[in-house]
Every structure is written in structure tokens, then in C-alpha cells.
Amino acid sequence: MSAVSDPALVRLLDRVKEASSNSVALNICGGGSKAFYGEAASGESLDIRELRGISSYEPTELVVTVRAGTPLIELESALLEQGQCLAFEPPHFGVDSAGTVGGMVAAGLAGPARVSVGSVRDFVLGATLLNGRGEILTFGGQVMKNVAGYDVSRLLVGSLGILGVICEVSLKVLPIAPATRTLCFQLTEREALRQLNEWFAKPLPINASVWYDGCLFVRLMGASAAVTAAVTKLGDQSIDATSASKLWRDLRDHRHEFFSSVTANLFHGETLWQLSVPTTAKSLRLPGRQLIEWGGAQRWWRTGAASVEVRDAAARAGGHATLFYARDKSAGVFSPLTPPLDRIHRELKKAFDPQRIFNRGRLYPYL
User: Fold this and answer.
1) Each residue of 25-34: pLDDT tens digit?
2) Can you list the domains of the chain with their CATH numbers?
3) For residues 141 and 128, what is the distance between their CA atoms, to the nearest angstrom?
């Protein structure tokens, strides 16, 4: 990507340099599908959707390089034509066409397959960043193995844009698995957690799992022989392919009944918390309703409990809690940082964006 020949990038550069000179805050915007996530946005809008298109794609190398304003659905369609995918299943909140690749990386959110394939960070190979000084920086590369210097490109994942404008990213992609089956088991929460821990300790092609309202769904994915053998071992309690596809898509995009009802009830005292805990953590004692993903590692709670109660429950289980959907975010969206991590965050912000012009306060109010 050239700062000289690319008109869209030239316009972004000029805007950033002007904002830096005048200490004007900028709110980096894509499709807006994740505007609800994190702390409240502030500053003038900086639309990056002009940075659109796939720069290069080598299906045989399992690598794609794409500009940050590219709609996520556009990238996934191109990969599908080659029988490939973003294995971590990035969510499509709101309208399918809204989410962008840059927003996907900045938010760092992954779908049901996160437990088996890894996070967004695990698939980022390189990135181009426009920092707060108006400099274009390139990190990483377009190959699977890259050990030169610090892995700054992955540092951008989940940063919510506070370090700069993500202009372009290189991503690892994977072939779509040849076989998939979804099994359903009637189990209590305790039984489901115990069973999941037992199954994940075995060489089974478990790609995703979810427990909700007394039902445990397990998605098997991989070679046909491996999936067939796993079905025989676990018990053939398959659901039909259409229902299974809808279930995992609705979970990924938060269109499942559990999520859609909480967003509708935000003004009735109920909020949605995302708790990250060890898979071996026992049942959490909180009021409300729960949905469990990632083999027990991700526990969603619809609750009216106070933030201190939710965070204490997560901490006792060895994890942390994020306020995902809420009308009132005064308690803070993300868990407070320890002093060493706090210092690292502040120094990174100072290094990349010394004037604090990008996405002020989106990650933590003081950044």
C-alpha cells in the first residue's frame, strides 16, 4: 500500500496530521456493527471504508491480504469460492454487510470455533497501521512463519483502535472441513461441564460446543472418517444440518434467543456479561440465565447483579468479566488492569498515539 499512489490513504493521512496538529479526537469508524462494544466512542468520525478490497490472495499458501474497510462478508465470499474460510468465525452483528475487516481485528471477537482453532490474534500475520504521528508503519508479513522483531500486528487485535488506524491486514485462512455433524445431549450444567472436560481431553474432532437451558450441543468437524468415528463413540444424537447451521450462525452473530432477548431487555435492568474462565471452573453462583461456550471457558450471563458481584464471581473462578451489552457502563466495560499491565498500556498508547487522537477512552477511559 503506497502513501503516494493511494488516494484514500492520502485523505486519511491528511486528516490524521491535521487532527494531530490541533489535538482533535478522532473516532475510527467502519460499518458500525460493533459500536456497542467497549466504552463510549468520542471525537469526530474518521470513516475508513474507502480502504476497500483484497490486495492479494494466494489460496495455495492459505494467506489473504485485505484492506481494513473491506466488508467482512465480501472477504468471506471470496474465500468460500476457494473452499476456504476464517476458521475463528468472526461474528456479524447487526446487518451482515456492515462489519469490516478492520473492525474484526480491532474488536478481536471470535465465534463458537474459538475453543478449537484459536483466536483472531492467532490468524493475523501482518498489518499496516497509520499512527497518531501520521506515519504508515508495517508489521509482520504475509507468511506463516515470521519471527523478526516484536509481533506488533497481533498487538492490534482487540485494541479497539486506540493505537491507530488499521489500514491493511494479512490473515491466515484454512480449508473448509469436509465433514461436520452436530450432536445434542440433554444434560444439566454440571453434567455438561464434566462431559466437556472429558471429551476435550481425548483426540476427538470437537470444533465447538454450547450449553443452554439443559441442552449441550457439540459440533464435530474434520475428515469424514474422523467425524463418523466420533459420532459412533459419543452416540449418534445428531440434529439435522439445516437446524445445526442456524444454531451456530445465530450463536456467532448473537441472534440466538439468549442474546436477542437481553438486548431487547436492556432497559429493564438486565445486562449481558462475558466471563472468561478456565474450562475446569465449576458452576458460577449468579442470578439470571447462563449460556456456556468454548468447552466451558466462555460463560455468558444475563443478569441484573451488580458489577462487583459478577467480577468477584469471575475472579474466584480464576478468570475475568467483560460488560458486553449494557445501557449503563459506569462500572467499566473491561476488568481493571494490574499495575504492570496498566503501565504497558499507557506506554503503548504514548508510543503510537502521543496526542491521544484515536478512539479516546474506547478501551479504558484514561487511554
Assistant:
1) 999 999 899 9
2) 7-175+346-352 (3.30.465.10), 179-252 (3.30.70), 257-325 (3.30.70)
3) 10
